[in-house]
Design brief:
The protein is mainly alpha-helical. Helices cover 94% and strands 0% of the residues. It is built from 1 helix and no strands. The radius of gyration is 34 Å and the shape is rod-shaped. The model has no long low-confidence stretch (mean pLDDT 93).
Length: 80
């Protein structure tokens, strides 16, 4: 009888360990996936920053172009 109980407990412990191994594997996989998501997010942030810098540069160029147009208008005296 005691041996049957020991066998039953051992079976349960082995089942729990197998389940724990599965949880550990799943957790490890989720950790890897989270790392890939973080890398992708960092890439998006870097791209967004580059886009913002490009937009700012275009705004600066447009401002300079506007200034040049105003100078031309003043020289030609065609300003409204």
């Amino acid at each position: 009888m005691a041996e049957d109980i020991n066998t039953l407990v051992l079976e349960h412990v082995l089942a729990v360990r197998a389940d724990l191994r599965g949880v550990r594997d799943t957790l490890s996989e989720h950790g890897h996936r989270l790392t890939r998501i973080e890398i992708g997010l960092a890439s998006l942030r870097r791209d967004h920053g580059a886009d913002a810098a490009g937009v700012a540069e275009m705004g600066l160029r447009l401002d300079r172009l506007g200034d040049k147009v105003q100078q031309i208008e003043r020289r030609l005296e065609i300003r409204d």
